[in-house]
Each structure stands twice: as C-alpha cells, then as structure tokens.
Amino acid sequence: MLIKPKREFPTLLFTWQGSALSQTWPFLLGVLAFSSVLTWANHTYDLSWVDFTATPFSILGLTLAIFLAFRNNACYDRWWEGRKLWGQLVNESRSYVRLVLTLISGDDPEVKVMQRSLVYRAIAFVHGLRLHLRGQPRWEELGMFLPAAERQGLVTERNKPMAIVQTMAERHRGAFDRGWLSEYHLPMLEHISSRFLDIQGACERIKNTPVPLSYTELTHRIVALYVIALPFGILHHVGDFTPVVTTMVAYAFLGLDVIGSQLENPFEEDPHDLPLSQLSRMIENDLRARLGETDLRADLTPDQGLLL
Fold first, then answer.
1. Residues with Cβ < 8 Å from 55, sequence gap 6 or more?
2. Distant-in-sequence, close-in-space partners of 185: CB < 8 Å, separation ≥ 6
3. pTM reported for the whole predicted model
4. Confidence band (pLDDT; 50, 70, 90) for 60?
5. pLDDT of 67 over the 90 cut
6. What residues does 141 pair with on adjacent strands?
C-alpha cells in the first residue's frame, strides 16, 4: 500500500509513484503525438472534410464515464472486502490467543508448551495465508513458528494454511484428552479456528474470481477507441488546442480505467494493494507479546512510501 504523509493539494499534483500517470504516460504520449500530427495536417492540407460533430463524443463520453464508475466501484468493493477480512483476521487471532491462554490450564508443565505451540501455529497460519494469497512459496519463513518436520510436511500439502489449522485442531483434541481443556471450552477454540478457514475461503474467492475478462476488455477497448477518435470530433472546434484537450480527456478516462485494474486484486504487491506483510507482522508481535516474549521483530514501516 502506498503511504503518503500528505494527501492534500498541491502535494498530490506532483505524486508519481503509484499514480495513474505512471502507467498511462506511454499511451498519453501516443495520443498527444497523434493529435499533434492531425492538427499539423489540418493546417498543411486543409482537412475541412474531417468535420465531425462533437455531439456523439459528448454522449459517448458521459456513458463511458458512468460505465467506468460502475467498474471502479466493483473493484473497490473487492479491495475493501479484502481489507475487512484481514481486519477480522486480526481480531480473531487476538481472541484466539486470549482463549488459549485462559481456557487451557493445568498443573502440568506441558500446558505452557501446548499454549505456546497453539499460539505459534496461529501466527504460522497468518503468515501462511499471506504467502498463499500472493503465490509466494517461501515456506521457510514459517521456520520460527513450526517444527522442522511439520514445516517439511507442508511441502506436499495442496492447501498449506488449511493444513496448519488441521494441526491446531488436533492439538485442541490433545489438550482435551489430557484434561487441560473442558468439553465446554473445546467448541470455543474450534469455532475460532473455523473462522480462520472462513476468512481464508473469502480471500480465495476474491483472488480466484476476478472481474469478468469481457467486462474489463470492453472497457479497455472503448476507452482506447474513444481517445483515438476524439481529435477528429474536436479538430475544427478547438483548433490548435486539439492535442492539449485530447490528452487531458485521455488522461481522465485512461486514469479511471487504470484505477480499476489497480484495485481488482488487493492481495498482490502493487502500490495500492493491501499491506499483508505489515498486517502479518503486527499480528505476530501482538500474539507473541501475550506469551510474554520480548524479542519481537520490528514492525514493518514504509520503504520509500510503500508498505507491503
């Protein structure tokens, strides 16, 4: 996620990183060059026969703006739902460690070992879900939270976050069998671990079900055709200002189109995607702190304004 200290006028006028302009400038230069050549040709060869009315462009422009707004709203809903799901994961993780440390009890010294094991598996699930959603097979990052044998076993697992939750459930049952967990408290822990899987499933739904390709493809094509045809419609109305007007309109429509594409998949590492690494580290430190550990890893901070 792109983090900026100031978001007001005129600071944002000069923002480049993550802006729509950083992705649309090659096409904008092409539009500027094409409309400039057309304007020059009109002076040189008298293109009076190119006398289109601007009315169709006005109607199409309004329709296109509404169409882009609907698409961007749909993409933003996906982004915001992803953020809410990770907010739920933060809350569920904190609730889980609270229940583990209060409901699993006994005089056996192994109780503390069991508690730590479960909390570490909750942390491993959070980091594992991040890697799973981003398609990053860096499972060695779970080394400090899972035993080597268990981490090695994840290599053959199809759904690794789900496998981690399975081991959590097995340890819940183990604590119950040893009398450390009552029959009334076992369902409470199982409910939260099930909520972990609910959150994972919802995130996978967003990741694996993008905005239909035909919808996005149609938007791209209409925007491209519109900005290419626009100089012909305004050439004899704005004259030498045709390149400027065309480029400004192109920037507006191309920018709106790019914004939707930036928000469509919120779990990647683009400038406007969710900071899953930062959220994972925050959850990790919160849960380890409840265990009384003090050698916490530093919270992630923006690097050149970008927080992953």
1. none
2. 99, 103, 104
3. 0.90
4. confident
5. no
6. none
